[in-house]
Amino acid sequence: MREVEERVPGADRMRGCATAFVTHATARNRLPLDYSVASLRVVDFLIDGLRKGGAGRERVGGTLFGLGAYVGEVLVRRAGATWVDFDDDQRAYFAQPVGVRMPDGRVWNPLGKVHNRFEVGGPEESLQTFYLMLPGRARRAVA
What we know:
Elements: H1 2-7, H2 14-26, H3 39-52, H4 61-79, E1 82-85, H5 88-94, E2 98-101, E3 107-108, H6 110-120, H7 127-133
């Protein structure tokens, strides 16, 4: 856990991490990573490709982090969430130092959700479905 905390920046830097990931990921590819809810299906597809390629979690850790930052930023922009630094109990529960807080006060762990998709796969771990089923979303898109 301590190792993860040392590598993951604080909540105040997560938007920049998501932006840097999108810039890097789309530099050579025409990936529709536009922070839309529909783009979360692309994230599902990318993670499935990493799984099928047989890459170990250690080898793709940076990519998984970037995808997690992106998913969190979709929650910020589309569901009204805000990036937060987890308290000690939340860090222990989620095994991550940062996450998002929804308008209704609930906290979620997009970084961990991406890791779950990579480890488990399958439709029950879909990030697009996660968003669509997420309680506490704002009714309107937020820029």
